[in-house]
Amino acid sequence: MNTYSIYDIVAKMIGKVEPVGSTYVDDERFDNLAELTALTNLLLTDIMQTAEYKSRHEHSMSKAGNSATKFLDYVKEDLDCWYERKTNS
């Protein structure tokens, strides 16, 4: 029996997003990209809301908040590096 990660399931449901240069294919992939970015926005919003708990006194709440904050810091650093490469190319 195959086991699939959440990523595998979502990627299969949404479909490919990378354009290939064919209008018909790329129109569908553009729609897929819109779905993927909408989902990503919702997920990031959930994570940002959870990050607000990092200063709570309850251990379980601050643990979740710190984990979310650490992830958001990683995403910011990754995006900053990506933008830096794009502006210097």
Short description:
With 89 residues, the protein is mostly helical.
Could you explain how this protein is built, in words?
There is one protein chain. Helices cover 75% and strands 0% of the residues. It starts with 5 loop residues before the first helix and ends with a helix. The chain has 89 residues and is an all-alpha fold. It has one domain (6-87). It has helices spanning 6-14, 23-51, 59-87. It is built from three helices and no strands.
- Give me the secondary-structure category: mainly alpha
Radius of gyration: 17 Å
> What's the SSE pattern?
HHH
Kindly report the average pLDDT value: 97
End-to-end distance, in Å?
Answer: 46 Å
Strand residues, percent: under 5%
Global shape: extended
Task: Extract low-pLDDT stretches.
Answer: none
Q: What is the number of beta strands? A: 0
How many domains make up the 3D coordinates?
A: 1
- In helices, the fraction of residues equals over 70%
Count of helical regions: 3
Question: Could you give a short account of the major beta sheet?
Answer: none
